[in-house]
Amino acid sequence: MTVRPPKRMHLAAHFPGVNNTTVWADPRSRSQIEFSSFEHLARTAERGLFDFFFLAEGLRLREHKGRIHDLDVVGRPESLTVLNALAAVTERLGLAATVNATFNEPYELARRLASLDHLSGGRAAWNVVTSSDAFTGENFRRGGYLDRTERYTRAAEFVSTARELWDSWTADGAPRPFAHRGRHFDIAGEFTVPRSPQGHPVVIQAGDSDEGREFAASAADVIFTRHGSPEAGRAFSTDVKRRLERYGRTPDDLKIMPGVTVVLGDTAAEAQERAAEIRRQQVSPQTAILVLEQIWGVDLSAYDPDGPLPEIDPVAEPQLTQGRTRRGDTVAIAEKWRALSKEKGLSIRQTVIEASGRQSFVGTPQAVAAELETFVRHGAADGFILVPHLTPGGLDEFVDRVVPLLQERGVFRTEYEGTTLRSHLGLSDPVRKG
User: Fold this and answer.
1) Per-residue pLDDT reduced to its tens digit, 125-168
2) Do 281 and 255 reside in the same domain of the chain?
3) Does 323 share its domain with 389?
4) Dihedral sign for Cα atoms in the order 358, 113, 430, 420
5) Concatenated DSSP letters of 294-317
6) Mean pLDDT across the stretch 44-51?
7) Left if phi > 0, otherwise alpha if psi is -120 to 50, otherwise beta: which for 122?
8) pLDDT tens across 315-337, in order?
9) Which of 136, 243, 288, 326 is the most exposed, having the fewest neighbouring CB atoms within 10 Å of its CB?
C-alpha cells in the first residue's frame, strides 16, 4: 500500500494594529509605526520560513460616536512603502500589501506592485479589498460614489486590467501598446515596467460574502478568511473550491488561510490561563461596550460591562461607527450573543470575549503543532496567517517552539525551495495573455 506524504501547510505573519488584537499595555509591546517593528516581525517570519508577511491598511482613521476610534493606529506608514524597505532586509519572505481596489487606479497600482516584485526578486503580493463607504471616500475626489453591489464588479475588472498591464511586455522584453475598454476603466498607452519575476504578483482576497467568494474563485491565489473552526473551515473551503471549475481552475490554484492566534504554555493549564489573560487585556470594559455598540448601533455607555446584555434590539442602520466594515445581520448576531450569554451566564464583557475572538490554538507547543496539522490534513485550510497579540515580538515563541515540531512531523518546509512567493505557495506561473 502506498503511503501518502503528509500535506504541507503554508504559514504567513500578519502585522496587527487596527482593532483590539494588539495588547497595547503589555510592557513588551513596542511601536506600531517605527520601521524597526516591521523589520523585527518580518525577519522573525523569514527565520521561521514563512510564506509571506502581510500588512493591513486603512484609508481613514475610523470614528466611533464622532470621535477617532482609540484602537486605531495614528501615523502608520503606507504599506507598499514599508514593503519596499523590507525587501532590502529580507531575502525569501513574500511581501503582501492591502490596497483598496475602489480608491485606486489600475495603471498606477500595477506599476507599484510590479516595482515591488522586481525589487524583491519576485516576492510581491496584493491583498485586494473594496469599499462602498462614503466616510472613507471623503478622502478621495469621487467620494463614496460606488454602490455596494458594484464594488466586486469594479474589483474584478481592476485585477483583470492590472494583469493585462503586467502581460503587455513581449516575451523578448519589449513594451507594446495596451488598451482596455471596460465598464469601470477606459485606458490605453504603454506600461513602463517590464514583466516582473512572478509575471503577476500573488493576489489575496478576504471577502466572505457570496460576491466575495465568487471573486476569489475567479481571480485570487489566496483567501484570508475568519472561518476558524474545522467544521466552518471545511464548509467554506468546499464552497469556494467548487466554484473554481467554472473559471478553468483547480483546487490547487487557490490557498485558503484563516487568520488565527496561538498561545503557548509549558502545560495545557498554563496556556489556557495565558490565553484568558490575553483576551481580558484585549477586551477591556471600555472595548466591550464599544464592540456592543457597533452591533446594536446605539449608545450603550450607560450599561455595565459586567452586567447583562441589552434587551433592546439593534437598529437597522447603525451609524455610530464610521469607516468599519459592517458586521452583517446585526439582529441575528445579537440573538446569537444573547443565547450564548444566557446559556453560560455571561456578562457583556464575557460575551464579547467569548464571541468575538479569532480561532485560537492554545496549548503546549506539541499540542498546537498536532492541532495545526490535523486542521490542514482534514481539509479545513491550506495553512494559516498568524495574528500575534504583541508587536513586534509576538511571533518569536511560535517560530522557536512550534515550527521545529511541524518540521519534525514533515508538514512544513525545512528550507525555502524557491525564490518567489509563487514557488513558496506552490502556485503555477501565470500564462502570458495577448
Assistant:
1) 999 998 877 788 888 876 666 777 788 899 999 999 999 999 99
2) no
3) no
4) negative
5) HHH-S--TTS-TTSPPPSSPPPSS
6) 98
7) left
8) 866 567 776 666 668 888 899 99
9) 326
Say if residue 209 carries a ligand binding annotation.
yes
pTM: 0.93
Q: Is 430 inside any structural domain?
A: no
- H or E, element range at 96: strand 94-100
Is the same domain home to 76 and 211? yes
Position 89 in a domain: yes
Cα torsion 413, 417, 418, 423: sign = negative
Whether residue 218 is found in the same domain as residue 276: no
Task: Specify the amino acid at residue 106.
Answer: P
Measuring CA to CA, which residue among 342, 266, 327 is closest to residue 292?
327
The string of pLDDT tens digits covering residues 378-393 is 999 999 999 999 999 9
Among 330, 356, 382, residue at a domain's last position:
356
**How many beta carbons lie within 10 A of that of residue 296, not counting itself?**
23
What are the cell numbers at 86? 523590507
Q: Is 152 annotated as a binding residue?
A: yes
Domain tally, the chain = 2
Instruction: Please name the amino acid found at residue 61.
Output: L
**Residue 408: exposure state from Cβ atoms within 10 A (0-12, 13-18, ≥19):** exposed
- Number of alpha carbons in the 13 Å side-chain half-sphere of residue 236: 26
Domain of 334? Answer: 269-356
Three-class DSSP category at 413: coil
The answer to whether 107 is a known ligand-binding residue is no
